Amino acid sequence: MAHSNFSAVDEYGFERHEDFDYESYEHFMSVYLKVLASRAQKWASLLGEGKSVKRTNTVKRYVRKGVPSEHRPSVWMAISEAEQMRDQCPDLYQKILDGPFEKELVDLVKTDLPRTFPDNIYFTKEANHQTHLFNVLIAYAHNNRVVGYCQGLNYIAGLLLLATKSEETSFWLLKALVEKILPDYYTKTMDGLIVDIEVLSELVKSKAPDVHQHVINLGLPWAVITTKWFVCLFAEVLPIETVLRIWDCLFYEGSKILFRVCITLIKTNRASIMACNDFTTLAECFKAIVKNASALHCHEFMQSIFKVPGTLSNSTIIKLRARFAKQRREQQQKEPPR
């Protein structure tokens, strides 16, 4: 390993693997630290004297350029409607934690605790984050009986805890994501997720038709490629700082951001994808593109998601969702009852 000034563990507690490219990271951070310093000054001015965050064009622009880590908890709560939800039921989280809990839900959540970020020092059995994670997930499972507990929520709640350092803030942000921002990703039938994968396929078909056809020709379903991207909101997929920058925008602009990220990953790695000649190579290629240098350089990557995909309106996504949801309902009606 090359000599580096950087620790073998990042600032969020994730262990850096043996093949971690310290040289590229050092180069990236030498540039990104200046960006962070500049953004911190601007946010300090915006939030000075206890000002509350309003949804304005200035705030939208600031959010796209990154929310400083120390401000993420309060800014995410303000821009996502989670703050309004909490203010309507300020004692809800603690009341749920007072119990009682259903054994089935407890067992489900406990099964996934050791699987959540095993490479993070805060989520080891000795650390206390597994307890915090259990509290957030069990509270949400009892609060939203339609969703209960669904795999994938552990990664989202886990990263929310790392970013906010607060159980209650993480609970409300999780609630905002599942109930306000994402369309039925975590219900038992995962209808919203299945529809959004179809929507992405259609968007790729219109914006990168050669890539779309190539993926079809090699027989790799889009669901195999992108289910984890959507379910985990890129946690456990992209580098951590890139994920948090995506979440900055997700909380402000909604699930359209997920499509922008997907299309950017696909279009910027077009040459690598098109060079694949079989199913296995293509699957490995899609695993590699989320770990390469362009994904690590989060500031440039976030600038690219608003340029590379081109125009992507909410109305287009709404129409495509309606179309594929209708097709799914019709398909379900044709299926014989079980």
UniProtKB/TrEMBL annotation:
Keywords of this entry: GTPase activation
Asked whether the UniProt record includes Iron among its keywords, one would answer no
Instruction: Please give one Gene Ontology molecular function term for this protein.
Output: GTPase activator activity
Originating organism: Parnassius mnemosyne (clouded apollo)
Tell me the protein's name: Growth hormone-regulated TBC protein 1
For whether the record's keyword set contains Transport, the answer is no
Q: Which residues form the Rab-GAP TBC domain?
A: 66-254
A UniProt-annotated Pfam family? RabGAP-TBC
Q: Which InterPro entries match?
A: Rab-GAP-TBC_dom (IPR000195), Rab-GAP_TBC_sf (IPR035969), Rab_GAP_TBC_domain (IPR050302)
**Main role?**
May act as a GTPase-activating protein for Rab family protein(s).
